[in-house]
Amino acid sequence: MNKRLLFSTFVAIGMAGCVTAPTPPRLANPTAPVPPVDKHFWWGTSTSSFQNEDEGLSKTSPYYFKTDWDVFADEGHAPHRGDASSSWTRFDADLAAVKLLGVNHFRFSIEWARVEPRPGVYDEAAIRQYVRMARELRAAGIEPIVTLWHFTFPSWLYDKNDKSAVNFLNPQARPHWNAFVRRMVRELKPYVRAYVPQNEPNGAVQLGYLGGHWPPGLLLRPYSYKHALQASADMFRDAANIIHQERPDAWVIGIYSVPNWKRNFLLDPTGMTYNTMMRQNFDHLDKVYDTVDVIGVNYYYTQDAAISAFLNHGQGEVGSRYTQMGWQIVPEGLYDVLQTVFKRYRKPLIISENGLGTQSEQKKIRYFRDHINQMRRAMADGVTVQGYFAWTLVDNFEWTEGYTANFGLTHFDPKTKVRILGPSALWYRDFIRSHPMP
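Above: the chain sequence. Below: its structure as tokens.
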């Protein structure tokens, strides 16, 4: 990294107000007991619309759609996903695999662009398909958890020629978002009680406006970052209010990327980078925590807080202690994160994503076992944990990394699309059977 880039990074972060540590919110009763929201522990797994669904529609269809990520790939900033694991046309294969796993909860997401391919134009068949997915899960005794936004926007909110006003910052985004959320919750509410308004908005905004890795691909734009973060929080709060209006007994879940950042006094003597990373973890959640019933922690790695980690999306070394993504495997970091988040917000938690990319099934089993043990340790020490979700159901498209990481509990045959449970899936199934509630 050249000195100019290093200097500009520090300056940009300072301009973004990321020098001091984020101040914890003031809680009305910070010592009150925190009961779980449900008497049953949530064992689950997940998929994501863009990462798993096939494109599914011909360009001649009146409901043909593209997302901002498709345009981002057209620009050469990411690989094209193709048909991924065909989870749209072959949801039956996903459902069969979920049943075999024996989980009692399954999280999937709605592709906003598929539902609303043009402003104000809704694809009724797509809506019916998502409702069918939720209905069939519930009929199988599996609680559906629906994510309303998992990183992707309709392409009509993304202008590749003017990226200063795209996605969260597009003036059309908020009113169309509110209408989309209300329509989907109204359709799904007979079968869905648990909703995630946004998946990891903290990470997506940071990667899009400071790191330059994700749409809109802007590097070191602190002014845009601040405004996008606030716009995202406003849209989250809108969604939470709509969900509770449509179904008062709903569970609103806020899911966040929460790496376990470590202070390194040699690399970061002033603590500015560490404070920046802590703000990345908590600034968005601080703005919306009062609207959520459960906080979801997506934990993958522990890492020293350093500028290099900020710019390379946390990717590091290779070897037995690292994943295919270059993330260091530190199960104890999950314990630290659960303690930190619980003390900060005093809300029930779920581990909403936890997993690793690897071709070694034994490494995957060890990873799940060690992290679940750290979750149980946190629970024994007073943290209210409602559930654990292994990421992910089936090998999928991994954003800018394409298909290079094997996160799936199952693999799929490219021709038949049949999901094949690996040894890690069988281990997870057997563990759930013997541990219905930790």
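Residues 1-18 have pLDDT under 50 and may be disordered.
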